[in-house]
Amino acid sequence: MPAAHPLPYLHGYPPELLEQVRELIDSGRLLQTVTRRHPEMHDIRTERALYDYVNEIKSSRMRSAPPIAKVAYDPKLHILKNALGTHCTVSRVQGSRLKSKREIRIATLFREAPADFLRMIVVHELAHLKERDHDKAFYALCAHMEPDYHQLEFDLRLWLTAQELAPAEPA
Ligand SMILES: [Zn+2]
């Protein structure tokens, strides 16, 4: 009997759920199942557009968070290793003062992703402006900003799993 697919993006989800995912993989229906649930793509291609998009969500749902200096698509970001994105405070010395700047980096993979997943990852990164760790308070904040957050994160993990199993054909 072949070893079951390890499903690294779905670590921690209940075994019976993973069993259903393996069935979708085995029948070749994982990607279509996810994209059918999230058919709409976004058109946020440039960093300027991404910056505006992030700030729009921030000002409507998390007004009190500190301002963001920079938003970027980052081709070097590895989703799995960096737990769905990174958020960081870059310290820069300016004269004798140390200035902190908030930056949000989104893996370039999200540039060609369903709109729901870009929104989910932006909510995730915005929540990190207030909560550093992936703990209860962090996820409560995510769900406050996006009521469907948990379903979206699960579906994103399914999508990432599908991408990894069947990489896009080179153009
Ligand atoms: Zn995170």
From TrEMBL:
It comes from the Bacteria. CDD domains: M48_yhfN_like. Residues 95-156 form the YgjP-like metallopeptidase domain. Coiled coil: none annotated. PANTHER family: UNCHARACTERIZED PROTEIN YGJP (PTHR30399), UTP PYROPHOSPHATASE (PTHR30399:SF1). This is M48 family metallopeptidase. The lineage of its organism: Bacteria, Pseudomonadati, Pseudomonadota, Betaproteobacteria, Burkholderiales.
